[in-house]
Amino acid sequence: QVQLVESGGGLVQAGGSLRLSCAATGGDFSRYGITWYHQAPATQREFVASITRNGITNYADSLKDRFTISRDNAKNTVYLQMNSLNPEDTGVYYCNNAFVWGRGTQVTVSS
To answer: How would you write 27-88 as a 3-class SS string?
Structure first.
């Protein structure tokens, strides 16, 4: 059974960067795509970025200039590089493969 574990969150000042990881165990990682979502406090989860099993990427329009998604099939991991962070990026970031959710990683951006 596939499990997804997010990591890399933390506290960062506005303008800083973080790289989140979504590590998968179980199943054949190379056969599925991964999507990142962001859930700010008291809001619904929103789409951030996705990457297909073939490496085709898609981004939320408002984030595509600052965030980059990538995958390393050898490490069963998808990354989300987040640059020029601002307080609106604060929240929990989750990864999903259309069937399974991770537990999320907290990102806090201070002004």
So the answer is: CCHHHCCEEEEEECCCCCCEEEEEECCCCCEEECCCCCCCEEEEEEHHHCEEEEEECCCCHH
49 and 63 Cβ atoms separated by less than 8 Å: yes
Q: Give how far Cα 64 sits from Cα of 7, 31, 95, Å.
A: 21, 24, 17
How far is the first Cα of the chain from the last one, in angstroms, to the nearest whole number?
A: 40
Question: Chain centroid to CA 19: how far?
Answer: 9
Reported confidence tier of residue 22, pLDDT bands at 50, 70, 90: very high
Q: What is the mean pLDDT of residues 20-44?
A: 93
Amino acid at 3: Q
Average pLDDT over residues 48-76: 96
